[in-house]
Amino acid sequence: MEGTYSPSQLPASSIKYHHSYFTPAEVEIMSEKQRGKMTVTQEDKIRQNACGFIDAIGSRIGFPRRTIATGQSLYHRFHLFFPRKDFNFHDVALAALYVSTKMHDTLKKPRELLAASYAIRFPDLLSKSKSPFGEVDIDTVDPQNMTDNGCLPWNV
């Protein structure tokens, strides 16, 4: 048998090469595959909203530009493999920014990112906030107001 090898004849290890970058053609193919029935303009609008959201949170907290840019890149990379219609862009953007803070050692607690995101997403809560600094305190947010608007991602 020519094609069979005993375990002692197999190489001890093998090397796999992965490319961390995609060519423009690969990006287009992957984007088209994940886009589904969305138009290109709808996809661009969601992408711009998500990048603006990441930028606003990062600027509000005081992250370096490198951390913000990496968060935006992670957001785009995520959607090369997962369709946009299956995920809320706020959730993916926050997760991408959080991973970016870990990568660049600009550590913030997830609670701080959530508080900043609520301040950006729901500016009307700032006026009701008891904090003298104009920050949204997640502990004092009325869950009934949030669920009425369909804003909380979890069941309260």
Describe this structure in words.
It is a single chain. This protein has seven helices and no strands. With 156 residues, the protein is an all-alpha fold. It has one domain: Orthogonal Bundle (Cyclin A, domain 1), CATH 1.10.472.10. The C terminus is likely disordered. One of its GO terms (biological process) is regulation of transcription by RNA polymerase II. This is Cyclin-like protein. GO terms for molecular function: cyclin-dependent protein serine/threonine kinase regulator activity.
Query: Low-confidence stretches at least 5 residues in length (pLDDT < 50)?
Result: 143-156
Termini distance?
Answer: 64 Å
> What structural class should be given to the helix and strand makeup?
mainly alpha
Radius of gyration: 21 Å
CATH class placement: Mainly Alpha
In CATH terms, what is the architecture?
Orthogonal Bundle
The percent range for strand residues is under 5%
Give the biggest beta sheet. none
Number of β-strand runs: 0
Overall pLDDT confidence? 81
Number of helices: 7
Tally of distinct domains: 1
What sort of overall outline do the alpha carbons produce when their principal axes are compared? extended
Order of helices and strands: HHHHHHH
CATH topology: Cyclin A, domain 1
CATH superfamily: Cyclin-like
Helix share, percent: 55-70%
InterPro entries: Cyclin-like_sf, Cyclin/Ssn8
Protein name: Cyclin-like protein
GO molecular function: cyclin-dependent protein serine/threonine kinase regulator activity
Organism: Lentinula edodes
